[in-house]
Design goal:
four-stranded antiparallel sheet, alpha/beta, six-stranded mixed sheet
Length: 249
């Protein structure tokens, strides 16, 4: 589904991605972990086509999106549903209109068909009856659920989550996790999760990629991650650092 080959990116002379090689399996949930400021979100923006690399390739279903422009790139982008860290909801639109937005912009469905799909999806994320509220009138957890509903409304082949549970309490976090796992079971979509929370990885990921200093230093299952002998991985899990560098036990 997603294959990244020798991906490099720098900003103002500072290298952020330094030769990323990664294959994300189709129909599975892959978490990308690493320290804050380590390039996780930059990598994510490359995967969804928001950034162009300095060099390297990103293949989505066999097509190198780094070489695509215009409608050919937009066609690939429509395979994605994205849940940004802050939700990125439109403050001036109601919950209903936020979720309906992609259908109105990208399809020829009439309003009756749109309403049927939006109401069905809001029910799935336990937000029935909230259609007329605005984002600033609901909780952070509810806003995250609205963002997930909006990402799902086009029935994407790939769902991408950027720090999906940051700032949420443990109960709300479990609710979000249940929604995420329910999405993939229902549609068999591929999911990519950027997170720094080890508990999140252990709870819901099928695979995990560790990003460190611009490179993938480990790709494994969550179960194998916690027993890894890689000193960078063990330092990240235990939170032990020395001189700004991740250390072993």
């Amino acid at each position: 589904m997603i294959k990244i080959v020798d991906l490099w990116k720098s900003f103002n002379g500072q290298e952020v991605l330094r030769g990323i090689d990664l294959e994300i399996p189709k129909g599975k949930r892959t978490a990308i972990i690493g320290r804050s400021g380590g390039g996780k979100s930059v990598l994510l923006k490359h995967i969804i086509g928001l950034l162009k690399p300095d060099r390297g390739s990103i293949y989505i279903d066999g097509e190198d999106i780094t070489r695509l422009r215009g409608e050919r790139l937009n066609r690939i982008k429509r395979k994605f549903g994205v849940v940004f860290q802050g939700g990125a909801l439109f403050d001036s639109l109601t919950i209903y209109d936020n979720v309906a937005f992609p259908l109105r912009e990208l399809t020829d469905l009439d309003e009756e068909e749109i309403r049927e799909r939006v109401e069905r999806l809001l029910e799935e994320v336990s937000l029935s009856g909230m259609e007329g509220k605005y984002p600033d009138e609901i909780s952070g957890g509810m806003r995250k659920r609205v963002a997930i509903a909006r990402a799902m409304i086009m029935e994407p082949e790939i769902l991408v989550f950027d720090e999906p549970t940051t700032g949420l309490d443990p109960i709300t976090t479990k609710t979000i996790h249940a929604l995420m796992t329910g999405c993939s079971r229902k549609t068999n979509c591929t999911e990519v999760i950027v997170t720094h929370r080890i508990r999140e990885v252990l709870d819901i990921a099928h695979f995990v990629a560790m990003l460190h200093e611009g490179r993938i230093v480990e790709f494994t299952t969550p179960q194998e991650l916690i027993t890894s002998e890689n000193p960078i991985v063990r330092g990240f899990i235990t939170g032990k650092v020395k001189g700004g560098k991740l250390q072993d036990f």
